[in-house]
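Records of this kind hold a single protein each, on a pair of labelled lines. With that in mind, the following record should read easily:
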Amino acid sequence: MKHVLVLDRDQATRLELIELMGQHDMRVTPVSDSKHLLDVLSTDVVDALLIEIATDELVSVIRQLKAVTHAPILVVGAQKSVEEDKVRGLEAGASDYICKPVGIRELVARLRAAMRDRPTSVLRPERRSYTFSGYQLLIRQRLLTHSHAGEIKLTTAEFNLLTVFLASPRSVLTRERLLSASRLHEGEISDRSLDALILRLRRKVETDPANPRLIRTIRGTGYLFDSDVVSEIKGPAKSRP
């Protein structure tokens, strides 16, 4: 089931979307402001965002979202949205700009189209992979798998943090570097937020999170990823005649 994060200040609209989109096999997490939106993104895996926000906040909020998630962002604007507002939203990084009124079937169709198009527009850099302790992380696909457990979902912050650890195995990484790498909300970065993020990642990659062997705490300094890591970069896929 796809997970859609909905930002709308109107509670009645949020409740209506939860019910209607649930009928189309979509799980909705509703929020009323951008701060709550960023909080959810730091802990949950989200497939798409549907946001309705004041025009003067639109560009800054979209840019904040693009810094912490690669999920498509769809903006819902007023019925008489001017072309300039639409252009600003799309140029800031929105995948779509939808004007009210819009039927639920069209809304669901546009959400599905944005999520379907996501693999071709997200992360087209190197085809790097990391292998460690029975896990494999594919950077381009943002996919973590285990030889026995299968696919393990990561939030954007968890993915970024794990990537930094894998790039520098058995090296002590300071808390400041890890906080910056995980790209937590600007202005809200703290030791407590890093500790919470480390705990969530341990729960996903450690056999016994209470006694971690991979992500070790180096008191007074930071953390160390204690595992052999094999990194591989594949060349571009060859097209067949």
